Amino acid sequence: MRSDSDLTARARIRDAALELFGAEGVNRVSVRAIAAQAGVSPALVVHHFGSKEGLRQACDDHVVWLVRGGSGAADLKDAPGLAAALEAGAPVRRYLARALLDGTPAAAKLFDEIVETTGHWLEDGVRDGWAHPSQDAQARAAIYVTWLLAPLAFGEHLERVLDVKDLHEMDATLRYSRAGIEIFTRGVFADERALDAWDAVAKERKQR
């Protein structure tokens, strides 16, 4: 059985890895560096996680847990992929951005998990009346997640355009995330001309 200190050390190691992996990338971070950041020995890192890849998987699992509402909150303001990431802090957001840009199987699984969780959340919203139904619920969930996560991948460019020093700081995060939610809540177009044009193109292609 693990002691409380073992559990605390495990979480401290994971959090150190989240921060370093997010800031520098998995390939550039050593187990020794993670151990130093966490204030433990490299042997203890290996004891808890087996390897750096095992530690990375633990980081992925933790982020998925947060997206699933692991923080305990469960109302509209705690939308998966949004409030959980905001409350988790900059290291988790940086880690998520880096994991998605890496394009590894672990990152792909992570993205799929987030889309699946968000899809269920939106389905609940349709049933409860705070979300509109969609002709393609799976595509909508995927696009929703992609839009919310895109700022993390384009951080350098957004920092320049928005004139902020660090996109992961809370004020900047609230600014760009609110803009995204405003688009989803109120829309951009005042009428359906753009949607009608898209439908016309799709109809024409089916008739060929």
Entry keywords:
11 helices, Tetracycline Repressor, domain 2, mainly alpha, about 210 residues
How would you describe what is shown here?
The protein has 208 residues and is mainly α. It has one domain: Orthogonal Bundle (Tetracycline Repressor, domain 2). Helix content is 74%, strand content 0%. The chain has helices at 4-24, 31-38, 42-49, 52-67, 83-88, 90-102, 105-128, 137-153, 155-162, 170-186, 193-207. Helix 1 packs across helix 2 (31-38). The model is unreliable at 71-78 (pLDDT under 50).
Secondary structure elements and pairings:
Layout lengths: L3 H21 L6 H8 L3 H8 L2 H16 L15 H6 L1 H13 L2 H24 L8 H17 L1 H8 L7 H17 L6 H15 L1
What is the CATH homology-level superfamily? Answer: Tetracycline Repressor, domain 2
H/E topology pattern: HHHHHHHHHHH
Number of strands: 0
In the predicted model, the low-confidence regions spanning at least 5 consecutive residues are 71-78
Report strand %.
under 5%
Task: Name the overall outline.
Answer: elongated
Largest sheet: none
Level of helix content?
over 70%
H/I helix tally: 11
Number of domains: 1
**Highest CATH level, the class:** Mainly Alpha
Rounded to the nearest angstrom, the radius of gyration is: 20 Å
Q: Classify the fold: give the CATH topology.
A: Tetracycline Repressor, domain 2
Report the span from N to C terminus: 67 Å
pLDDT averaged over residues: 83
CATH architecture: Orthogonal Bundle
Helix-strand makeup class? mainly alpha
